[in-house]
Amino acid sequence: MSELREQFIELLRQTKREGIEEVIGFLCTSDFFTAPASTRYHSCHEGGLAEHSFNVYKCLRNKVLKTDDEGNYISEFGSYDKDTVIITALLHDICKTNFYIAEPKNKKVYSPEGMKSDSNGRFDWVSYMGYTVDDKAPLGHGEKSVIMLMQYIKLTKDEMYAIRWHMGGFEAKENYNALSETFKRFPLALALHEADLEATYLLESEE
Question: What CA dihedral angle connects 177, 182, 185 and 188, to 10 degrees?
Fold first, then answer.
């Protein structure tokens, strides 16, 4: 985990964005590098949030930093500099800092010798440490990340819209018109959403 943390911080420092050291300071004093990325669906283990964010960075980098033989950007999503890719990908889920708490949970484990039974067979209850949400600042998801980041650094319009709408179709239905308009005007938002999905479903797993 320490190696990933070092890579993460080095990438952020490469941007030389004014205020980025304050962002790094916040990450290092919060639970960002130890928190899970979810309670159940992907990277739901210690350090999962940083792992997921780094995976999104790798996917987004491959999408928008493609170049031809002359070094010109050829991405269908448009041309963006490396700083924008680093900031939007690594920090899109900063809203999940100080968001989860560990607590004991129970789950069914099926076995022929189980003490209880249901339609699926015999099972026992097994205790394990899991995570649950404890949202101390209920400001939304993408919008919360934007609000938190803008306390430290100035975001470009592309960065702001990409982070705000990175959840894509997982947004509430009443937001679909705004989401569609965002994807038209700011293709980076679509690219970040796709990178998020690819990291979640192709590089990570449900646990």
Answer: -150
Instruction: Tell me the two tokens of residue 69.
Output: 């033989």
DSSP code of residue 36? -
Closest alpha carbon to 35 in 60, 53, 11, 23: 53
Distance from C-alpha of 34 to C-alpha of 155, rounded to nearest angstrom: 26
pTM of the model: 0.88
Residue 155 DSSP symbol: P
Q: How many residues does the chain have?
A: 207
Using one digit for the tens of pLDDT, what is the confidence trace for 17-40? 999 999 999 999 999 999 999 988
Rounded to a whole number of angstroms, the distance between the first and last alpha carbons of the chain is 19
Helices (H), 92-155: 142-149
pLDDT in tens, 179-195: 999 999 999 999 999 99
Domains of the chain in sequence order: 2-99+135-201 (1.10.3210), 101-133 (no CATH)
Residue 32: which of 49, 7, 44, 14 has the closest Cα? 49
Q: Would you say 44 and 38 are in contact if contact means Cβ atoms under 8 Å apart?
A: yes
Give per-residue burial for 101-117: e unless 16+ CB within 10 Å, then b: eeeeeeeeeeeeeeeee
